[in-house]
UniProtKB/TrEMBL annotation, chain A:
Subcellular location(s) per record: Cell membrane; Membrane
Family designation: Belongs to the CPA3 antiporters (TC 2.A.63) subunit D family.
InterPro entries recorded: CPA3_Na-H_Antiporter_D, NADH_UbQ_OxRdtase, ND/Mrp_TM
Membrane-traversing stretches: 24-41, 53-73, 93-116, 128-147, 153-171, 183-205, 225-248, 260-280, 292-315, 322-344, 350-373, 385-409, 429-454, 475-497
Alphabetized UniProt keyword annotations: Cell membrane, Membrane, Transmembrane, Transmembrane helix
Entry annotated with the keyword Transmembrane helix: yes
Protein name in the entry: Na+/H+ antiporter subunit D
Main location: membrane
Topology versus the membrane: Multi-pass membrane protein
Residues in NADH:quinone oxidoreductase/Mrp antiporter transmembrane domain copies: 149-441
TrEMBL record, chain B:
Protein name per Swiss-Prot or TrEMBL: Na+/H+ antiporter subunit B
Family (UniProt): Belongs to the CPA3 antiporters (TC 2.A.63) subunit B family.
Record's keyword annotation contains Cell membrane: yes
Bilayer-crossing regions: 12-29, 35-57, 69-92, 112-133
Keywords annotated in UniProt: Cell membrane, Membrane, Transmembrane, Transmembrane helix
Annotated organism of origin: Roseibium polysiphoniae
Principal place of residence: membrane
GO cellular component: plasma membrane
Lineage summary: Bacteria, Pseudomonadati, Pseudomonadota, Alphaproteobacteria, Hyphomicrobiales
Domain of life: Bacteria
Automatic annotation (TrEMBL), chain C:
Keywords: Cell membrane, Membrane, Transmembrane, Transmembrane helix
Record PANTHER family: ANTIPORTER SUBUNIT MNHC2-RELATED
Protein name (Swiss-Prot/TrEMBL): Na+/H+ antiporter subunit C
Record flagged with keyword Membrane: yes
UniProt subcellular location: Cell membrane
Family: Belongs to the CPA3 antiporters (TC 2.A.63) subunit C family.
Gene3D superfamilies listed in its UniProt record: 1.10.287.3510
Organism expressing this protein natively: Roseibium polysiphoniae
Keyword Transmembrane helix: yes
Matches recorded under InterPro entries: CPA3_antiporter_subunitC, NUOK/Mnh_C1-like
Principal cellular location given in the protein's record: membrane
Membrane topology per record: Multi-pass membrane protein
Transmembrane segments: 6-21, 28-46, 75-96
Amino acid sequence: MAGSSVSVDISQAMAVAPVSAGDWLIVAPSILTLLGGSLCLMTRKNTQAQPKIGLIFMVLLVAANIGLLARVLDKGVITMVMGNWLPPFGIAFTADALGVTLSTIASIVALCAALYGSATIDNTGRRYGFYPFLLLLMTGVSGAFLTADIFNLYVWFEVLLISSYGLLVLGNDRPQLDGSVKYGILNLIGTNLFLIATGLLYGMFGTLNMADLATKVAALENGASGTLATIAALYLLAFAMKAAAFPVNFWLPASYHTPNIAVSAVFAGLLTKVGVYALIRVFVLLLPGSRAYMADLIALVAMATMMSGAMGALAQGEVRRILGYLVIAGIGSMLGGVAVGSTLAISGAIFYAVHSIIVMTALYMAAGVMMLMGGSYRLRELGGLYQASPAFAAVFLVLGFAVSGLPPFSGFWPKVMLVDAALGDGRYWLAGVILLSGFLTTLAIGRIWIFAFWRGGPEGTADGTSTVRISPIGQLGSAALWLPIGILTALVVYFGLQPEWMLQVVSRGASGVVEPLGYVRSVFGGL
Amino acid sequence: MRTIIFRTIAPYLAALMILFSVFVLLRGHNEPGGGFIGGLIAASALAIYGIACGVASVRRAIVFHPMSISAFGLFIAVLAGLPSLLLKQSYMTSQWLSFRFFDVNVDLSTPMLFDIGVYFVVVGSIASIALALEERESD
Amino acid sequence: METGLSILIGLFFTVSVYLMLSKELVRMLLGIAILGNAVNLLIFTAGRLTREVPPLIPEELYTPAVQTANPLPQALVLTAIVISFSFLAFLLVLAFRAYQELGTDDANEMRVAEPADEQAPPQGY
């Protein structure tokens, strides 16, 4: 400290080795989005500048994430401690393959949403802060994926939660307020449960650093001791609430269809997956003993989630609400991976998360275009979209196949891995339910496609004699609408046809959490 | 609430409280105080001024929208962590700049910049809530 | 000391769960406020309690001379208090707006986003 004349050896408490600029990429996602978000918030009244600032910072965010991904794949897990204070005292940010993959995909999706939002968010929405909130949401999401401190993870959860509240009430109309109340209260209770569990964990181990915790939990002789099981159960409930798993999933279909469609798209892509990520991080990295102990329960929750999601989707007549239930069905598959817990299963869960982030966002965006073309979200009032735009119908079909897990699209490979892992673990029921929910999802998507696209016109009109004017997609004009959908669909097709690269990345991510040695060494080893 | 005594005193009281909040902000590094508590004091000063003289005059007095003030604070708080990039140290590592200014030792530091950022964030966000609630009441 | 506080925390949780099980939004929010306080007390207790020894290091030393109170839970609780305070403020405003717009604070009657008389999806054409 300035002014102190006593010289003291600080290498016990502080990192003294120089930090290369490349390591700064770990904090770059959070810093960039914070800077961009605050700049956007300051210039909130300038509705023309908002999309430009937002897009510039989103592009920077994607660039930083890709740079970080390249560095992690090249050098392995990298760590940076805030303020040079050594872990476990300083707050560490650690980028491993799991976190950085999800962070990269999330930033690409957010860039697409920012672009899409420039077409669907009007000036009022911009003044109320769509772009600042979106950027701050990404601060929370990136921070959650990259932090190595469990209390810090809680803080990032809250950052993304408060931004999501802002986005959710953007238009301030009646259904939005209704949905926000349910979303708000249940998610706040969820994060409080997370905090309770974290407090108990701190009381037990006296540390909050994940690498430190992983070591200390592993050193504890009986991994599934009573207190630890209680903590694990609390974490399970908290993250299940965040991820919308079965008994506590009702807030999702109640709220995701209420905000602007660009907001729904981001939420469907990102928020629940952060919950799944936290579940993988805590259960596989920190509490592997408790995960094994609770594996049957998690498998049960996973199956119930998949079935309730798929059947809920079949019972709905509104496109956005069908998609909301499909989000839930996907969460079930990822939980199935956590229940099995082998490297293959976790790889499958991570790949499924990547796939689900992309495809759910793209589907909501496509639903927004359907609304613009056909003037409604209700299946009964839609029809004839295939005639209006065969290309768009084909894109929707691709996305639909992907979300159902049919080859040759991105949903196929993670499902194969999950089913394979479940069979290998002797969980035949889980494998069966994964396949069954895929089948039911196909039915739900097929229904949307047949009614909204294939038939000639809305209910009550004879085929081909529709009197409702369908705006062809060409007339919607704006590249801001179809470019994001195009990018995401291209990713879906690419990961379906060329999965090798992604398979490598996710298996590195999975083995990184199943065998946390590299993670621990990165945090406590040479910096 | 709007007695003549209160209306006469409030501007002076608010000015004094803002001065005090800056004092609390600056002594915060080694003694009790800091950006958060200073910001709360300043925000309560604005709230008192608003109760006495009306929300419109507060909004005129602070020139910028409270949320913009908040965003500005966030901006400089994030910037405060960046100088250590040039010195090959981690994010948020504190940097000190000490010099003599007319026989007085002055220590400037990035934690202080961060604290100033926190101060603005708290002033902005609490003032925006307080002013919005006061406005609703006077409708 | 820890035992007494643990019992108090248990009471807080009981009260908050009871309130959150109510249908009325205002009661739920009160429950959430108490839940937040319960959590803060829990973290505070989990950090072990030491009376009357603030974690201050004398000027000439680099570590505390005697065993002091644990400063980390205090920092955590401070963070959690700020967060739960801002969330509670937001939720109160939200509940108030919802009450104005929907005309009810009964969660069972809030059916605008999910109408009770929703049509079934079309079965075939």
